[in-house]
Amino acid sequence: MATDFKSIPIIDVSPLVAKCEDPKMAEDPGVSQVVKQLDKACKEAGFFYVKGHGIPESLINDVKNITQKFFDLPYEEKIKIKLTPATGYRGYQRIGENITKGIPDMHEAIDCYKEIQEGMYGALGKTMEGCNQWPLNPPNFRALMEEYVNLCTDLSRKIMRGIALALGGSPYEFEGVRAGDAFWVLRIIGYPGLSGAKDQKKPENNNGCGAHTDYGLLTLVNQDDDITALEVRNMSGEWISAPPIPGTFVCNIGDMLKIYSNGLYESTLHRVVNSSPKYRVCVAYFYETNFDAAVEPLDICKQRTGETKQFGRAVYGEHLVSKVTTNFVM
C-alpha cells in the first residue's frame, strides 16, 4: 500500500544488471542491496528512479529528439498514420482524442504494441491484431524506436528479476507462462506547453494526462530533462512531483503486478500536468505479462498476506482490450 511519501527514491540497479544472468545472483551482496531498495520503493510509493541501467544516454536523448521532430510536423503529415480500430489501435492520435475517466487529455501520441499476427490469440487478441504504424518522416524513426524497445525489454526483464526476489520468490517468477513472452506497449507522447507566462494561472482543464494507473508489470518513463510535469499521488492525496533526473528512467509498477503481489505492491495513481510554456515530450515503455497470461496472486505473496487472495483472476489481454477500446474519441 502506498504511504505518505514526499519524494521518489533513486535506485542504482547496476549490480542487478551486471549479475542478472548469474543463477546465484540472489547471493550477491550488491544485488541484495538493490532488491531491498526495490522492495521498499514498491511498497511505499510504487514509483522509483533507476540509474546504472546500461542503456546509452545518447540513445535515450535521440529517442526524445526524434519524437520532438515528429510532433513538430504539420498535422497533415502526422495523420498519415492515424490510429483507428482497423489498425489494431496503433498509430497517431491528435490532442484531445485520448480520454481518461471521460475527460480529454491534452496530449498527442503515437501508440505502438508488440505485433500480434492474425489468429495468434484467437478471439482474445482479435482487437489488437495488426502491425505498428511508423512514420516515414523523420527518417530512421522506426529503426531507432525498435532498438530502444529491445533495450527497454531487456532492462525491464532484469528489474523484474529483482522484484521477484523482493517478493520472496525465485528470480524467474515473472517468466515462463507469466511473462516469458512479455507483451509490450510504447506510447510516444507530446504535451503542449501552457500558453503565456510561467506564472499564468493554470486552467481547470490542463490535464496533459488524467490520473490513472498503468495496466501491466513495469513502466519505464523517458521524459524531457528540463520540464517537471509528472505527478504521483501519495496516500493522503497529495500530488508529489517526479522531476526529471538526467540519465535515469522513472519506473512504476502496474495493475498486473499489484495482483501478483496480492496487494503488497501498489499501482499508484499518477498524472501529467505541463504547466511550462514549453512543449514536452515523453516516451513511455510498458513491460507487460504474456498477452494471454491468467494473472492471480502468487503463492509466496498469499503466504505473506494471511493466505487470503485480495484479488481475483485477471487475463491481461482482456484488461488491455477493455482499456484500449474506451480510451479514444474516434
Structure description:
With 330 residues, this protein is α+β, with helices and mostly antiparallel strands. The protein has one domain: B-lactam Antibiotic, Isopenicillin N Synthase, Chain (Jelly Rolls). 27% of the residues lie in helices and 20% in strands. It has helices at residues 14-19, 29-44, 57-71, 75-78, 141-166, 255-260, 299-304, 316-324, and strands at residues 10-12, 47-51, 91-93, 99-100, 103-104, 108-113, 184-191, 209-212, 218-223, 230-233, 239-241, 249-253, 270-272, 280-287, 294-295, 314-315. The strands form four sheets. The chain has an eight-stranded mixed β-sheet. A four-stranded antiparallel β-sheet has the order 8-13-10-11, with no helix packed on it. Strands 4-5 form a two-stranded antiparallel sheet. The chain starts with 9 loop residues before the first strand and ends in a 6-residue tail after the last helix. Mean pLDDT is 93; it is low at 196-204.
List its traits:
globular, Jelly Rolls, 8 helices, eight-stranded mixed β-sheet, 330 residues, four-stranded antiparallel β-sheet
